[in-house]
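User: Hello! I'm new to structural biology and keep hearing that structure can be predicted from sequence alone. Could you demonstrate with SYNE2 protein? Please show me the input and the output so I can see what each looks like.

Assistant: Of course. The first part below is the input, the amino acid sequence of SYNE2 protein. The second part is the output, the predicted structure written as tokens.
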Amino acid sequence: QRESTQKKTFTSWINSILAKHTPPYVISDLYTDIQQGHLLLDLLEVLSGQHLPREKGFNTFQCRSNIENALTFLKSRSLKLINIHVADIIEGKPSIVLGLIWTIIFHFHIEELARTLACTYNQPSLDCSSAVDSSPKASRSAHKSAKVKERWKMSATKALLLWAKEQCSLHSSIPVTDFKSSWRSGLPFLAIIQTLRPGLVDLEKAKGRSNKENLKEAFKIAELELNIPRLLEPEDVDIMNPDEKSIMTYVAQFLQYSRSLRESEEDVQEKVRDATSWLAAQEEKLAKLLVDTENETYYQKYKVSCILYLTASTKRNYINEWKVKLDQMLPSPLDSIEAWLQEVEHLQAEDLPDLQDPFKAMFALREMIVIFKHLIHQCLLYPMILSQLLEHFTVCRFSNIRFTNSNTFLEYHYGLCSALANEVMSKLNIWDMKYGTKESVESLLEDW
């Protein structure tokens, strides 16, 4: 029953996303429709806003290529696809397909929404706690990013649960402790609706109704009044042990709705006054820091300023929003370079396993090479930067894997790096300098 519920919920969620696709379309059988690869690519393009490479046909080779492109894209965003292989998706294996779709939902839907709550609830969000630091200590910590991301997954779940508790706490005697049996009565759904849109439900009347009646009303009101797609049915939730992933997917839509609500003018003015007051205080601290670090380098001044701002936990959400907007405001063509560099940083930060088997190490490296080559094909940077990246990748990244049979591994490593280096150099030889000289770019940045 859990598998059936997930298939229905995930299919409905996918259709709500594909409604934004051009042209929009719907799927009927997730296990069958995913086999061609076009569904995955369409879904990821809508969620990421990026154009992904694909084969237009539907033969076996083209379907496999499309699925590989989709998985490569997910890995480039540092997502771990454990035991998810192309062959299993082509066969439409239920457990593999559901696992892949849940990974996409959690990353693009739940994590993105919960990220805005992480600072509020003091969860260890990557955006909230990271700072620019090129020290050896920072380099070592970068290799632990995969573990940090795993902790962040738990934090995203906790942040979403805390948000749901907060909405329900405004209405007494409606406890929420998990994403399972707590929702069986339907009252938490109704309480959240009442908080977001007061007057739509009568909670006192609902307490005297059956679970199925409350669930039916909650799903109906959410669909008609809040325009939230109906991902669940009463019989999916009113059972002994409802599916946690399906309920999380549905509850996240209420959080998404709350993000789109227009704030009252009074609330906006209060936030403006609060932010202005905080900025004034930070300005005084920054002025003092500038005096204290007068004889330091500009980099040291910048680093100290970053630490000052990032330690202000109550305003981290403002800093994160401004940082994202600032990065997006880079003048063209540097805005595209910023997006490309983020993908490269994700790849470089991904931790590699300690593999004793050289053949398993080769397989792991082959996957990394596929991702790396994909990024090279997208690269719009200077040849000098690309060469530095290649050197870093071949020297630093491969040294993280330890092995016992060094001769076999080094022979493979040498051939692999030679082939990759030849491909890169051939590309460098025919590329034009798209952005002119180094001085022209420095001038562009200086004007900005």
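User: So the tokens describe the shape?

Assistant: Right, they're a compact way of writing down the 3D structure. Reading them back into a model, for example: The chain has a mean pLDDT of 76.
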